[in-house]
Amino acid sequence: MKLDILTLFPAMFEGPLTESIIRRAVEKGLLDIRLHQIRDFATDRHKVVDDAPYGGGDGMVMKVEPIAACLEAVKVDRPEARVILTSPRGRLFDDAAARELAQEQEIVVICGRYEGVDERVRELFVDDEFSIGDFVLTGGELAAMVMIDAAARFIPGVLGSPGSAESDTFSDGLLEYPQYTRPAEFQGVAVPPVLLSGNHADVARWRRHKALEETLQTRPDLLEKAVLDRDDQRYIAELKEDACR
């Protein structure tokens, strides 16, 4: 995947894009990430990239011209790139959206700042907008990092274990089951015996039940869209019945 990030603060990406799994993905050629300083494309002497909003109001708005010029330069060799804007107005970025972006070959992410970007950026250049939650950040850089990290996990070869992305939280609409590793006991708390039994069917059943329990307790809203079979539905009914006693 080829990723181009348009930002006023490219240094913010140095840590997240140069460490751990993302760094290895870049080294293996699975990700090609380029950072572009929008301010470099401002044409005035002071490199101004924002201005007061027409009609008045607090804050400043990112100007359309520097963004347009930066995007035009990027698209010279990324002509088919899907252009994404990080914005509180965008659709919610979730597991399905991460999988969707992982299928793209070329992506450009415009990181919004201040009170937002001139609306003509949306109208003329943006293919999609994403928000990572119902809260406001100081800028779109952190949102872009989250989106890149989440999408990269679904690119074949990025994760060490091919099945990791498919078994993680939200992969089937549920929260993940509890995980344990050595030692078998710590400060009097033992690993559930079923995980030490070697019975794969029992382990799978335990994990499924725990995932259902965690989701029902913490994020019951997820159950409305989760893919549940009859055994799942029966177990959830039992949990709800027990909670009412």
TrEMBL record:
<keyword id="KW-0489">Methyltransferase</keyword>
<feature type="domain" description="tRNA methyltransferase TRMD/TRM10-type">
    <location>
        <begin position="1"/>
        <end position="225"/>
    </location>
</feature>
<keyword id="KW-0819">tRNA processing</keyword>
<dbReference type="InterPro" id="IPR023148">
    <property type="entry name" value="tRNA_m1G_MeTrfase_C_sf"/>
</dbReference>
<keyword id="KW-0949">S-adenosyl-L-methionine</keyword>
<dbReference type="GO" id="GO:0052906">
    <property type="term" value="F:tRNA (guanine(37)-N1)-methyltransferase activity"/>
</dbReference>
<keyword id="KW-0808">Transferase</keyword>
<keyword id="KW-0963">Cytoplasm</keyword>
<comment type="similarity">
    <text>Belongs to the RNA methyltransferase TrmD family.</text>
</comment>
<dbReference type="InterPro" id="IPR029026">
    <property type="entry name" value="tRNA_m1G_MTases_N"/>
</dbReference>
<comment type="function">
    <text>Specifically methylates guanosine-37 in various tRNAs.</text>
</comment>
<dbReference type="GO" id="GO:0032259">
    <property type="term" value="P:methylation"/>
</dbReference>
<dbReference type="InterPro" id="IPR029028">
    <property type="entry name" value="Alpha/beta_knot_MTases"/>
</dbReference>
<protein>
    <recommendedName>
        <fullName>tRNA (guanine-N(1)-)-methyltransferase</fullName>
        <ecNumber>2.1.1.228</ecNumber>
    </recommendedName>
</protein>
<dbReference type="InterPro" id="IPR002649">
    <property type="entry name" value="tRNA_m1G_MeTrfase_TrmD"/>
</dbReference>
<feature type="binding site">
    <location>
        <begin position="132"/>
        <end position="137"/>
    </location>
    <ligand>
        <name>S-adenosyl-L-methionine</name>
    </ligand>
</feature>
<dbReference type="Pfam" id="PF01746">
    <property type="entry name" value="tRNA_m1G_MT"/>
</dbReference>
<dbReference type="InterPro" id="IPR016009">
    <property type="entry name" value="tRNA_MeTrfase_TRMD/TRM10"/>
</dbReference>
<comment type="subunit">
    <text>Homodimer.</text>
</comment>
<feature type="binding site">
    <location>
        <position position="112"/>
    </location>
    <ligand>
        <name>S-adenosyl-L-methionine</name>
    </ligand>
</feature>
